[in-house]
Amino acid sequence: MKFSPLLDQLINDLQILPGVGPKSAQRIAFHILERKRDDAVSLAHSLEEAMTKIGHCQQCNTLTELDICAICANPKRQVERILCVVEGPADVAAIEQTNQFSGQYFVLMGHLSPLDGIGPDEIGLDKLAELLASGDYEELILATNPTVEGEATAYYIAEIAQEYGVKASRIAHGVPVGGELEYVDGATLSHSLLGRQLIN
Amino acid sequence: MKFSPLLDQLINDLQILPGVGPKSAQRIAFHILERKRDDAVSLAHSLEEAMTKIGHCQQCNTLTELDICAICANPKRQVERILCVVEGPADVAAIEQTNQFSGQYFVLMGHLSPLDGIGPDEIGLDKLAELLASGDYEELILATNPTVEGEATAYYIAEIAQEYGVKASRIAHGVPVGGELEYVDGATLSHSLLGRQLIN
Ligand SMILES: [Zn+2]
Ligand SMILES: [Zn+2]
Q1: What is the rounded distance in angstroms from the CA atom of residue A175 to the CA atom of residue A187?
Q2: Using CA atoms, how far apart are residues A75 and A80, in angstroms rounded to an integer?
Q3: How far apart are CA B101 and CA A121, in angstroms?
Q4: Which structural domain, as residue segments, surrounds residue B160?
Q5: Per the domain annotation, does A178 fall within a domain?
Q6: From the candidates B4, B33, B87, which should be mutated to test the interface with A, based on the most A CB atoms within 10 A?
Q7: In residue numbers, where are the C4-type zinc fingers (chains A, B) (predicted)?
Q8: Is the pTM for the entire model greater than 0.90?
Q9: CATH code at B93?
């Protein structure tokens, strides 16, 4: 025991947060105990509620506590007949902020990574194939990250789109190669959406 | 709304953590939702329990859920008749790790900072005076941080000690000037404890 049992437990549990080791967990614990008790109780409640209630949208697979997320449930988003495939929910948020896209999304929650055991089923490509088979979409925009894995995943999905006779496009390389989509500024991202290129 | 209501709430609440802005709150939320759900529920529980149950030791003022902390409650620690004054609980832990001190502590939970409205009462010097008046201590080791505020606080407390006829010493400047005690390595800290100098 370094401090009291409860304090040691808190410091230990805080280390599940990415980038937080023993020393910073200690700093965080003291900081909130000294200055943010009420806020930290609110955080405890939203943490527990989020962890137990947030699942995946039944249509686009993004993280949400709803059965169908707000974007998928919006009938105006279906009119475009375009599905934009991204790696994660943060990418949806980044693209939404450009105001350049009014279609729907499909969220892979990752990318193909055979060495880590992440194959097509793990990123929901079976579900994506069903959506393509529905005939509801004319175009698939592949907006995976401009990394090696993101490119490989995009080309893999482009082949599936071809099978279903759906046109596939890749967002333009206005986005910096090797970067991550969610950190790209809005102007660059807008440009890359407008300049998208047909793949097949 | 950027994501779903619960997810937005979680990302908002995570920003009470020191150094966590909107982007890193988002990263943390996705990370734990994707990989650490059970651990995050445990964190939620220990957060709530810590925030509601942890208070201050009635004797030394450190953070603890007990009325009297384990160190103050240990009769062996009273034999030395030495009280070591530190700025925070992390400093207690750092000094304990040196195994060079077997007396008791008094934790200021800060330092004098008149411009921020932190005067003697805010750092418990009234309580410290009571301890000195008890006649239980022969020496007061001033182990506040080797910063301008820490030095000023040490000298202020040395004067109180003098009033009560208790010898006051300052840990030696083996610790780097301008640094913070909790990040000093054990050897340096041991050296600074052994080389402490009388003030009055
Ligand atoms: Zn959805
Ligand atoms: Zn105590």
Answers
A1: 10
A2: 10
A3: 59
A4: 66-170
A5: no
A6: B4
A7: 57-72
A8: no
A9: 3.40.1360.10
